[in-house]
Amino acid sequence: MTQSTVTPINFTRGIPADESYPLAEVAECAQAVLTGSHALETMRYGTGFGYGPLREALAAREGASLEQVIVGNGSLSFIDLMGVSILQAGDTVLVESPTYDRVLTLLRRHGINAVGIPLEPDGINIAALEEALKTHQPKLLYLIADFQNPSGATMSLEKRQKVLELAEQHDFKVLEDAPYRPLRYRGTQLPSLRELLPARVMQMSSFTKQISPGVRVGSLIGPQPLIAKLAQAANDTYISAAFLGQATVAEFLQRGLLEPQLERLRQLYGPRLEAIVAALRQHLPNAEFIEPDGGFFLSVTLPEGTSGADLQAKAKTAGLTLSDGSGFFVNPADGNRFLRLPFCALTPIELEEGVKRLASIVG
Ligand SMILES: Cc1ncc(COP(=O)(O)O)c(C=O)c1O
After folding, report:
1. Are residues 27 and 41 in the same domain?
2. In which element (H, E) is residue 359 found?
3. How many structural domains are present in the chain?
4. Are 326 and 226 part of one and the same domain?
5. 357 and 280, same structural domain?
6. Buried b (16+ CB within 10 A) or exposed e, 289-323
7. Residue 13, class by beta-carbon neighbours within 10 Å (0-12 exposed, 13-18 middle, 19+ buried)?
């Protein structure tokens, strides 16, 4: 096959599959919003806390008070808002290593000292966390306990409890980023960190992976004084968020459309996870990876002697697009053999073909 006949397979972005978007339902919900009794509210400016009826729905669902809920333009922007409200330049934030690359970018943008704690298949390495706490007094520990981006790891119950114990002892808050939590394809759900100790935890979530990135709706639930500071920062930054999207999501929830949508996503993505795991075992038996139980990502550590930079160059000719693994690490050199493979936006056939191509360039 010449290069021109090879359809490229893209393993870079953790985006939902195009066929997952509930277009007809979203259209009906948006129509209902714009012709309903809240239409004018969605056209006007509101507060930095977000659209009231959606906050109320999330507060009721999550067992929180209204003052503990903020809804914004996606969830990532809360990190940016933290950088101008509850965090200051020079503060330390502990993160899993690897972690979500965009969070590292935002922390750095605000002059915050990100300290990486190695991640294991069952979550953050507790001994390393304890060691770091001897020399650092962090304001925050940022982690993705369920189906982590990028590794796919899920933190065990024991580690969740231990992390919260340490948060109490050393007086820091935990930022639990949970956009993948509803997308479990097998096994049993564990309690969230927020469920275990709400006074210490801010839980961030998003409708990006549940409905679509385009609705641009994310939420954060946490202690009231912190939420008030974030809402003020939001108001100072963009006055109020995009209420039309938030109202459409509120209508989606109110009509009971979310659970069937999540079930469709699990049916669509579960087989994709199985396909990539089977392909890796068959074609790249020497690559190490954590087998996820849900979410969007699986990441492999390639065999010794493989270099990320060489691989990027070879990938192009093999019809593959790969992301740079070093971006997920506080210390970029730690990610030289690390490769994140998002599996949700590719079909099982594309996943198998992609892994075969990868195997052909890893050698
Ligand atoms: C862990 C994590 N947090 C946050 C986000 C961003 O979500 P949003 O679209 O709500 O800003 C992502 C998106 O990939 C993510 O993986």
Report:
1. yes
2. helix 348-362
3. 2
4. no
5. yes
6. bbebbbbbbbbbbbeeebebeebbebbeebbbebb
7. exposed
How many angstroms separate the alpha carbon of residue 33 from the centre of ligand 1? 26
Ligand 1 site, residue 14, Cβ cutoff 6 A: yes
CA distance 275 to 236: 46
Report pLDDT digits (tens) over 191-231: 999 999 999 999 999 999 999 999 999 999 999 999 999 99
Our mutation pick for probing the ligand 1 site, out of 82, 205, 206, counting the most ligand atoms within 8 A of Cβ, is 206
**Which of 356, 323, 316, 317 shows the shortest CA–CA distance to 338?**
323
> Does 296 contact ligand 1 (Cβ within 6 A)?
no
Q: How much distance in Å is there from the Cα of 76 to the middle of ligand 1?
A: 6
Our answer on whether the CB atom of 218 is closer than 6 Å to any ligand 1 atom is yes
Distance CA 238, CA 235 (A): 6
Which pLDDT band, with edges at 50, 70 and 90, does 335 fall under?
very high
Q: What residue type is 128 in one-letter code?
A: A
pLDDT value for 3 = 47
- Cβ 342 under 6 angstroms from ligand 1: no
pLDDT of amino acid 5: 65
CA of 296 relative to ligand 1 center, distance in Å: 11
Instruction: Write the DSSP assignment of 249-313 as a string of letters.
Output: HHHHHHTT-HHHHHHHHHHHHHHHHHHHHHHHHHH-TT-EE---SBSSEEEEEPPTT--HHHHHH
pTM of the model: 0.96
What separation in Å is there between the alpha carbon of 28 and the centre of ligand 1?
Answer: 26
Residue span of the structural domain in which 35 resides: 23-254
* Residue 304 pLDDT: 84
Same domain flag for 12 and 67 = no
